[in-house]
Specification:
Largest sheet: 6 strands, mixed
Number of domains: 2
CATH topology of the largest domain: D-Maltodextrin-Binding Protein, domain 2
Radius of gyration: 22 Å
CATH architecture of the largest domain: 3-Layer(aba) Sandwich
Number of helices: 10
Strand order of the largest sheet: 10-9-11-8-12-14
Distance between the termini: 60 Å
Oligomer: single chain
Shape: elongated
Number of strands: 14
């Protein structure tokens, strides 16, 4: 009998804990509490995302995302922003779990992500999926030109998804890790080209590799800030701020403060990107 009672109590305890965990992210963020300082807006972002998200020598978060979000917070009278360093692959789970409130990182507005999260209006639309290869070995600006080539992609990333849909005559090489791991394979000539994000950080890494690289934009994909589905009031408020920033030129001014992603690498093609996806 005592064992039965203990088992029932244990089940109740576990059920209560699970309910609490699942219920925590379902509570919408209170804009009033953000404005009066009772709570803070927690932003998840990498700290090695090129000019979009990085740390200063003092350890502070900086970059285009930070500048835009600080301006949004100012306009919405949100007093406390907390940038939480999060690896890119952990951003979605962290938002779903309620550990963060907003995803930054030039987060692509993809159909599968829209099923899970809300997105703000796009604040950056010059990036997307690119082909990236050493100068003199291409060009690889279209799927047809990639035929017979070894194409490196981040395993499980959107680059792999796109490649498996479009590159029927190429050898797709999924590489576990990050873009840096794929770039290492490219430098070591284990692959002929890579398909991955279009980010300004890649230009810095390419220069450090000591060779001249070329790229072509394959798919133009807009980026926005992501919130949980329950936080529609927060998302709508951020949208209002972003629209106002677009109208008065603030968004363009912030963007001009950062170099174009393609500024230091020869660009073969930026026109006629492939149809989404």
């Amino acid at each position: 009998m005592r064992r039965l009672i203990a088992l029932v109590l244990a089940v109740i305890a576990v059920s209560t804990l699970c309910a609490a965990v699942s219920a925590a992210p379902s509570r919408p963020i209170s804009l009033d509490m953000l404005r009066n300082g009772e709570s803070k807006l927690i932003v998840g972002c990498p700290d090695d995302w090129g000019d979009f998200d990085y740390r200063t020598t003092k350890g502070d978060f900086a970059g285009m995302d930070s500048d835009i979000l600080h301006e949004i917070a100012r306009r919405l009278q949100i007093g406390r922003l907390d940038f939480h360093p999060t690896k890119f692959r952990d951003l979605a789970p962290a938002l779903q779990a309620g550990d963060i409130d907003v995803i930054a990182a030039t987060y692509w507005i993809l159909p599968e992500r829209k099923k899970v999260f809300l997105f703000t209006i796009p604040y950056y639309d010059k990036g997307g999926l690119e082909a990236f290869w050493p100068k003199g070995t291409g060009p690889f600006a279209t799927p047809a030109l990639m035929a017979g080539k070894r194409v490196g992609v981040v395993e499980g990333g959107y680059g792999e998804t796109w490649a498996r849909v479009h590159l029927h005559h190429s050898t797709i090489v999924p590489i576990s890790g990050t873009d840096a791991d794929v770039e290492k394979s490219l430098e070591e000539k284990q692959i002929d080209l890579m398909v991955s994000n279009n980010l300004s950080g890649r230009t810095q890494r390419a220069r450090s590799m000591g060779r001249d690289y070329q790229r072509a934009l394959l798919v133009r994909i807009p980026a926005g800030f992501a919130t949980r589905k329950v936080d529609i009031r927060l998302r709508d408020a951020m949208d209002r701020a972003l629209r106002a920033m677009r109208r008065d030129g603030t968004l363009a001014r912030i963007e001009r403060a950062y170099p174009e992603p393609d500024s230091s690498i020869s660009v073969i093609s930026r026109s006629r990107p492939s149809n989404f996806p």
